[in-house]
Amino acid sequence: MTSTSPDRDLRSQLETLTTEAYRPELADVDRLPTPEIARLMNAEDATVAGAVAEQVPAIAAAIDAVAERMARGGRLVYAGAGTAGRLGVLDASECPPTFNTDPARVVGLIAGGPEAMVNPVEGAEDSPELAESDLAALGLTADDTVVGISASGRTPYAVGAVAYARKHGALTVGLSCNRDSALAAAAEHGIEVVVGPEFLTGSTRLKAGTAQKLVLNMISTITMIRLGKTYGNLMVDVRASNEKLRARSRRIVAQVTGADDEAVEHALAATDGEVKNAILVLLAGVDGPTAARLLDESDGHLRAALSRAGG
């Protein structure tokens, strides 16, 4: 039985992708002792950071563009399928507890919807129309950013998301792990982290997934730094939603102010647990409402608020 034309076309496309290349030197890996397999995998993983480093200028340019739009009230939207989609959803879901962002400000879309986080949804990644529908539901504006994520750089859902977003005036970023990808070409900011063939042929949850996670970490974290969500390297916008984070909040306030435990507790109580506000209360000698006003006038930037207060 011969393959249909679409099948042949797809096979031809995949054969050109570095992420799909076969590693003949690993043909007998299943016969090796476990420690040796682990060492080989670890050596492969060690190359990922270097591949990301080569793309730092492109990553930084994209981050500055994202931060500019988010400062105007825009949203950061990740769109991908399979592992890439899950990584986007993961990064988005970690922004509210880490940076106290509104969950609607950083959004993760995965082809096939929430069910696809744990179970593959057949055909979802092959549908650019599904991406268009998912983004249309968000009502994109020119202040929003859509980051398409795809290891291959050809996934129709990711490419379709970027194409739709660009057509509607949103900023677009294409993150892939192959050179000259359709995804990067479709986006204003193309980021192509070429990690090479995978340890298991075509298993892009490995090096490609690690590379994508590193880049997404950079995009969200540095964007939030630019938006004043940190003070130095301290998470002063952390949302204290559990006991560990409440303890971290107290520790951060103490680190910045040098205040004793009693003063820290009093300041946090006076500011409804808001770390930045509590720091202002202690360093600027203001009350809770004044701290909130100073931060509002400073667009949430603690250093600027301290300057306004003369601290």
From TrEMBL:
Enzyme Commission designation: 4.2.1.126
Domain SIS, first and last residues per copy: 66-229
Enzyme type, top EC level: lyase
Keywords, alphabetical: Carbohydrate metabolism, Lyase
Pfam families: GKRP_SIS_N
InterPro entries documented for this protein: Etherase_MurQ, Glucokinase_regulatory_CS, MURQ/GCKR, SIS_dom, SIS_dom_sf
Lyase among keywords: yes
UniProt xrefs under Gene3D superfamilies: 1.10.8.1080, Glucose-6-phosphate isomerase like protein, domain 1
Transcription regulation is among the record's keywords: no
Annotated catalysed reactions: N-acetyl-D-muramate 6-phosphate + H2O = N-acetyl-D-glucosamine 6-phosphate + (R)-lactate
Role, per record: Specifically catalyzes the cleavage of the D-lactyl ether substituent of MurNAc 6-phosphate, producing GlcNAc 6-phosphate and D-lactate.
Family per similarity comment: Belongs to the GCKR-like family. MurNAc-6-P etherase subfamily.
Extra remark: A lyase-type mechanism (elimination/hydration) is suggested for the cleavage of the lactyl ether bond of MurNAc 6-phosphate, with the formation of an alpha,beta-unsaturated aldehyde intermediate with (E)-stereochemistry, followed by the syn addition of water to give product.
Protein's name according to its UniProt entry: N-acetylmuramic acid 6-phosphate etherase
Organism: Streptomyces griseorubens
